[in-house]
Task: inverse folding
């Protein structure tokens, strides 16, 4: 029994602080740290190529793009309607024997700005491809596959497991389900964010992360002793400073929010500032806003969305 | 910093099958098995007694009930607007030093019918009391507290950890966070249910559970080998039969759904049948319907609800 078509939603994730824990086995590799998942996220639609080709979607533009990008060996790949692929998504599809599928990734989040879009796309592809092709994998299996793909591509270490959980995830131990360990800060909050420019995750994670990881461990100890949102934000600011990752525009915005009585920090790794409540608005910025995502990654009923 | 008032929502949970794993330490005790969490659930509102007493809620009936039930040592307790308390909720409040709070439990689910209402109320009270009184506990801590209270009262073994996760939780190993282990069947589905009468969880769990647990382990092995919803339903039917828990009205409904081409099973432990999609409607019943809950237990913004 195969539904031939499925859609998944995965929340964005801004990392507040982290320590890097590389390992040969990508399911064991990962990061410790904490962050906030966002109701703004990534939607991934997967369909068997022949289903899309019959035009039953009624979406002429998508069908055209699909036809344009399709090859003999793999289906079409689009990102926000334009032809494009993501390495970790391809690895997930290969693992699920679903490279022939048409895969459409859609997001309102900025890409390469610290929102974990690549991890979200990989996890969404895993959930949707498993459902569309009825592969019969469990949730832990699918999270493990997406985590391994993301780690293998060097584009992230902890976004996938955090995005699978939702809320305000705390990564107590690094790694995929069955290896890593998670907790969470219980919180429902409005989050604002502003992005200035891109920052390469691969570049930072590929360098010497010793000092960064020491700062990340110290921040995690603080949050575990007091798992509250204001403590998370303060630990994030300390981490950015100690790990020497602050960039001028971000530092300026964090200071402006603080001066206006709010709580802001830098999203790791991006030239992005996120704030609780109306922190950035109060400081005179024009941020985008959403809420903490309560659910984590999930299949969505095609009747519910688009 | 205390918000003085907070609300949590916890999904209902129908257990498909389980094995019982008692232990002296209630965080270690629990069950293995699987079930389905429901978007129909339990809402718990917690407020510091003096906040409710000032009438700022604008809910005159609730304020009256609160005043009626309040004592010197503990705040008011209501269940669906009527005075009433739940043992596991009281234990959670004591653990959080919040017995003075006014606590209102609201649910559309039948009580004592296999939906995990007591566990949901305990977990909702933990989340909401922690937020209202700013106790600074982590999510795992709060789940652990509610799980221990539920196990201690003998009203459930696995609902709390399942309700914390949401979706279609598979309890691989029994116990609270840090001890137990969870997976999930990735699925978004409509669920229908009909309840015939109450069944005492305490009575069944208090008896000899050897045969029941053997049947539960066999069902779990089947689901782990094939984590799909139809397999879960089939394993649930086998469990109810092998554990000799089927009651006549339930057996009749399950057979009727099967005859109509659908998938149904008994909710453990209640005189309740649940079915996928429109299974019960198709068989001529007049069920209540909701969807699988994607999020699990969560704080809800008071601006969002009520």
Result:
């Amino acid at each position: 029994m195969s539904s031939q078509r499925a859609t998944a939603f995965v929340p964005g994730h801004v990392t507040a602080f982290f320590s890097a824990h590389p390992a040969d086995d990508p399911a064991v590799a990962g990061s410790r740290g904490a962050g906030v998942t966002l109701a703004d996220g990534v939607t991934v639609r997967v369909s068997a190529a022949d289903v899309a080709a019959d035009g039953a979607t009624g979406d002429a533009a998508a069908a055209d793009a699909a036809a344009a990008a399709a090859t003999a060996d793999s289906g079409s790949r689009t990102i926000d309607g334009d032809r494009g692929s993501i390495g970790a998504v391809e690895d997930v599809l290969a693992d699920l024997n679903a490279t022939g599928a048409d895969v459409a990734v859609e997001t309102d989040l900025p890409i390469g700005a610290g929102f974990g879009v690549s991890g979200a796309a990989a996890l969404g592809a895993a959930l949707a491809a498993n459902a569309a092709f009825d592969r019969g994998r469990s949730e832990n299996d699918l999270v493990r596959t997406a985590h391994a793909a993301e780690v293998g591509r060097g584009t992230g270490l902890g976004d996938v497991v955090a995005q699978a959980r939702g809320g305000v995830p705390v990564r107590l131990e690094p790694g995929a389900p069955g290896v890593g360990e998670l907790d969470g800060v219980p919180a429902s909050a409005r989050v604002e964010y502003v992005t200035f420019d891109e920052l390469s995750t691969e570049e930072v994670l590929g360098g010497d992360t010793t000092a960064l990881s020491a700062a990340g461990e110290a921040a995690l100890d603080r949050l575990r002793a007091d798992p509250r949102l204001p403590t998370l934000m303060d630990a994030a600011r300390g981490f950015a400073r100690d790990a020497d990752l602050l960039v001028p525009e971000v530092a300026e915005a964090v200071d402006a929010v603080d001066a206006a009585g709010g709580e802001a920090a830098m999203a790791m790794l991006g030239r992005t500032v996120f704030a609780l409540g109306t922190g950035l608005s109060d400081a005179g910025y024009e941020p985008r806003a959403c809420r903490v995502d309560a659910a984590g990654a999930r299949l969505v009923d095609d009747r519910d969305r688009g």
The longest helix of chain A spans residues 117-132. Residues 5-11+35-169 of chain A form a domain with the Ribosomal Protein S5; domain 2 fold (CATH 3.30.230.10). Chain A touches chain B through 37 residues (CB under 8 Å). Chain A has a mean pLDDT of 89.
